[in-house]
């Protein structure tokens, strides 16, 4: 076998848990932080002073940068402003319940003290600190679930990794050797030496030998309840589906799904990145995704100094202020039972034998009248979540008509709760 069976022997009890058990906290959490961070942040994705196309973490590929040249960025990686507690505190302040960070992206650089590859943040940079260890500890201290992103196939540094077709100096070895010598031992190390890991996030699957698939797949058995996404390979659906950058127009059929999206235009820190999404877009994305039953994995990009740009910090804090008032309309909710709403979105929760509907009004009616279609059940009570003030309701043939105050309580999304029977 490619990898000795003892290396990834699944503990018999390891995956017996049902998927629903494993996913319970994730379904409740709804909102997580994605972090793309690596040596590409030293220049913000620029090479020889030039902007490269695509997301910054692809600079080695887009710039056809030879391995020996790219390694010089590692020798310059020294994020002295990095403070794990502060960083995790920002995620918590934003209302994010979990954090997934790139332990190794396609460039092959390990952002942890890898025992399988000296090309890592402790052994190959002046920083010499195990960033993954510091983040894992900070997440544990602050009650944030922690997980790793790992590029299992593409590795532009290892001579057996996939994806580097520009550096002709590489003395190629087999992909199976890359799995045996680097990917498998690194994944085992990440899943067993960094405390409880809640998520393992595969990326850019490619065809590989069954042995390689099996050895990588069985590694997730090293932490009994680690959640995996659907990007190990076509025969490995994982625990949830991943949509990227775009929100599905309708609620997908998948029981568990997420949308991962950069807060700006690039996953990795890009020196010139003018595509920061507005706070309105970000909050309404969170609401839209929750209204369809999904999770939002929102990505931020630490700079080469180890901090986040002010644009990201400001947005995370604004989302946090909105969540401070309205998070009950997101956490633990399920998809809307209503037809598409022209004025906003709806999430739902079963409470006291009935249903609580959370109406997120994006477009506040100027005449104070809001029709909630297709509700025939008796309304127990309706009120503005922000103030707790009661809202008058009237049952009509088309649904429930609400009479609202003149001013919307929130500029991004105003929440009205309606408690109905059944
Ligand atoms: O190529 C990667 C990309 O750099 C980034 O990590 C995204 C995040 O989902 N995944 C791949 C593109 O789908």
Automatic annotation (TrEMBL):
One BP term from GO: fucose metabolic process
Domain of life: Bacteria
Official protein name in the record: alpha-L-fucosidase
Gene Ontology MF term list: alpha-L-fucosidase activity
Record-annotated Glycoside hydrolase family 29 N-terminal domain positions: 12-328
Keywords: Glycosidase, Hydrolase, Signal
Family of the protein in this entry: Belongs to the glycosyl hydrolase 29 family.
Origin organism lineage: Bacteria, Pseudomonadati, Planctomycetota, Planctomycetia, Pirellulales
Recorded GO CC terms: lysosome
Its EC number(s): 3.2.1.51
Role description: Alpha-L-fucosidase is responsible for hydrolyzing the alpha-1,6-linked fucose joined to the reducing-end N-acetylglucosamine of the carbohydrate moieties of glycoproteins.
Species this chain originates from: Novipirellula herctigrandis
């Amino acid at each position: 076998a490619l990898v000795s069976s003892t290396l990834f022997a699944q503990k018999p009890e390891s995956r017996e848990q049902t998927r629903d058990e494993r996913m319970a906290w994730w379904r409740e959490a709804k909102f997580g932080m994605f972090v793309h961070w690596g040596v590409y942040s030293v220049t913000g994705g620029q090479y020889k002073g030039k902007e490269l196309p695509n997301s910054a973490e692809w600079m080695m590929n887009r710039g056809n940068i030879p391995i020996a040249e790219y390694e010089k960025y590692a020798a310059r990686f020294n994020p002295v402003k990095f403070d794990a507690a502060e960083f995790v505190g920002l995620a918590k302040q934003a209302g994010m319940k979990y954090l997934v960070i790139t332990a190794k992206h396609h460039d092959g650089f390990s952002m942890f003290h890898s025992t399988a590859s000296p090309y890592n943040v402790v052994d190959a940079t002046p920083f010499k600190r195990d960033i993954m260890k510091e983040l894992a500890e900070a997440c544990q201290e602050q009650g944030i679930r922690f997980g790793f992103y790992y590029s299992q196939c593409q590795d532009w540094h290892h001579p057996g990794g996939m994806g580097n077709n520009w550096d002709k100096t590489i003395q190629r070895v087999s992909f199976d050797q890359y799995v045996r010598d680097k990917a498998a031992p690194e994944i085992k190390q990440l899943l067993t030496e960094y405390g409880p890991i809640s998520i393992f996030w595969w990326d850019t699957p490619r065809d590989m030998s069954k042995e390689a698939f099996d050895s990588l797949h069985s590694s997730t058995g090293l932490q009994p309840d680690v959640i995996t996404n659907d990007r190990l390979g076509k025969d490995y659906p994982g625990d949830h589906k991943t949509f990227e950058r775009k929100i599905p127009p309708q609620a997908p059929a998948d029981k568990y799904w997420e949308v991962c999206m950069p807060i700006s235009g690039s996953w990795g820190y890009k020196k010139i990145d003018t595509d920061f999404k507005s706070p309105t877009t970000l909050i309404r994305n969170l609401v839209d995704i929750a209204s369809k039953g999904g999770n939002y994995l929102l990505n931020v990009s630490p700079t080469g100094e180890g901090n986040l740009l002010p644009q990201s910090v400001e947005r995370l804090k604004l989302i946090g202020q909105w969540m401070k008032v309205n998070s009950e309309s997101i956490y633990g909710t399920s998809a809307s039972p209503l037809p598409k709403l022209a004025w906003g979105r709806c999430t739902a929760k079963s409470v006291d034998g009935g249903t609580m509907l959370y109406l997120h009004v994006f477009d506040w009616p100027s005449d104070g009248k809001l029709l909630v279609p297709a509700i025939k059940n008796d309304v127990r009570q309706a009120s503005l979540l922000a103030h707790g003030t009661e809202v008058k309701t009237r049952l009509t043939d088309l649904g429930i008509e609400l009479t609202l105050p003149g001013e919307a309580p929130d500029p991004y999304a105003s929440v009205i709760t309606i408690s109905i029977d059944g």
